[in-house]
Amino acid sequence: MARKTTAQVLRENKASGRGSLVGYFPAGYPSLEQSVEAAVAMCQNGVDVLELGVPYSDPVMDGPVIQEATLHALEHGFKLRNVFEAVKAITDLVDTPVLVMTYWNPVLQYGVERFAADLAAAGGAGLITPDLIPDEAQLWLDASEKHGLDRVFLAAPTSTTERFASAANLSRGFVYAVSTMGITGAREELDNLARKVVAGVRAADGEQTTCVGIGISTAEQVAEVNEYADGAIVGSAFVKAYAEGGVEALKVKVQQLASKLAR
């Protein structure tokens, strides 16, 4: 049976009244094998779409929890090619769509066409590219089209009508709605600006799926976001749980954050 696409999973969950949880974990943390184990555990315990992070030496969008984890991965020998090994190992075990979250420079260095081909061969669903804007993404648009990969662009509270339109029209999988300006990390209250971003994307393309990320750390926030968006993205809370209690604590955290999504 063919693996469902990211958009299919989000739309089917939304149609069933359930909502979706998108979960982030960095590849190579604390080792390649352990990151695969963690990612698989997330998929088996309530994460509907997996976001596998590529460790990067200058993570401008990442908060301290994720920065520390990715730095650890790099210091312990993580190489970019390892992300394809991780994706294949994960997709061999679960049917959850796996999106790779990466800054654009590593993809350029590796070769955009080669990266797309290797990601598709490993069973990956596509890329989330936080620092690549649609206007400068022609190489990636071409490669992702050729290999049938998702391309997730970001929209923010500061986005113009034109930017909302380009993100909505050119993204595949979903648009990543940034709820607050700044770096990732849990916040006490989810910024109401997230609703404005989702509304901006919907106004540009009513068919496009949209997930909200940055600052989501509780089951209540996950449920609230799913009332007006197609999914809630959680990263730091999962990495922190793993750092404090390993894979068992991570399973508990995933189950906890998915607990208020209707089943």
What key phrases describe this protein's structure?
263 residues; alpha/beta; TIM Barrel; nine-stranded parallel beta sheet; 11 helices
Report what the structure shows.
The structure is a single chain. The chain is of the alpha/beta class and 263 residues long. It has a single domain, classed as TIM Barrel, CATH 3.20.20. Helices cover 48% and strands 13% of the residues. The protein has 11 helices and 9 strands. It has a 9-stranded parallel β-sheet. Strand 6 (154-155), helix 8 (161-170) and strand 7 (175-178) form a beta-alpha-beta unit. Helix 2 runs parallel beside helix 11. The longest helix is centred in the C-terminal third of the chain and has 23 residues, at 236-258.
Topology of helices and strands:
Layout lengths: L5 H10 L5 E6 L5 H13 L4 E5 L10 H12 L6 H10 L6 E4 L2 H7 L1 H10 L4 E3 L9 H10 L2 E3 L1 E2 L5 H10 L4 E4 L14 H12 L5 E4 L5 H10 L2 E4 L1 H23 L5
Parallel strand pairs: 1-2, 1-9, 2-3, 3-4, 4-5, 6-7, 7-8, 8-9
Distance from first to last alpha carbon: 23 Å
CATH class: Alpha Beta
- What's the β-strand tally? 9
CATH architecture: Alpha-Beta Barrel
Largest sheet: 9 strands, parallel
Short description:
The protein is α/β, with parallel strands linked by helices. Helices cover 48% and strands 13% of the residues. A nine-stranded parallel sheet has the order 5-4-3-2-1-9-8-7-6.
